[in-house]
Amino acid sequence: MSLGPFDTLFVSLNGLASGNLHLAGLFVLLLLLVALEVGVQLGKFIARLHPPTDGQKSSVNFATAGVMGLLAFLLGVSLSMASDRYQQRRDSVLAEANAIGTAWLRAAVATGAEGEAMQRLLRDYTETRIALVRGSSDPAETDRLNQRSNSLQNELWQLARTVAERSPTPISGLLLSSLNEMIDLSLTNRRNFTSHVPPYVLRLLLTVSLFAVGAVGYGFGLVNSRQPGLSVLLLGVWTLAIVLIIDIDRPQSGQVRIDPAPLVWTLQGFGPPK
Q: Which of 43, 87, 113, 177 holds its CA 20 to 30 A away from the CA of 186?
């Protein structure tokens, strides 16, 4: 199925954002400038055919204000959705750090050599989780870290199971419980880091932005006044807002990333390796 023109623009923007956010911002700014210029030329053309009256100019200004209001609403919704996901990622990182710390403490009272082995694995596991939160622009590296996390989880569970089968005490039960919570939170964290603002929302935001800027240009063309300073300010601020939403929505490859400090503090609390 062939893509429409706006779908093609969105796919191009998404590809640029995955590689270089600055290029994505420049791409959005150029699109808005083109939309503005098209609107200006169309307004001039209409004004030459039928010079607008004051009432018609007022109607155009009223309609343009309505479109800009709708655009501001869409921008607020998109930014709110991106911010909510950002906060969810922060909370899940803190919860996972607490779960790892609890598992470490309970592994310290496990009997036999399994307890020390679990603590060594938990140290390695925490370092892996820190690397995942910090993110990488290479998807293959992210997949490798996720596979490493799964492998360490399996090793930790097998050791805890050995302890529980040999000594079925409340302590071993608590150890299994803490490891289970730690594994569950890793899945929650992974879900949060791969959850994005729905593509159709960003596509709608880009589409309405082009139409709204075109409407502004049309109004400028009708009165034959480009307002270059105001236009550059408006388009620049609007581009920054759209790029910010895209950046927040890419926690492992953008500029706005989640701070892995809770996991780092947990790792520091383990003390020097034996």
A: 113
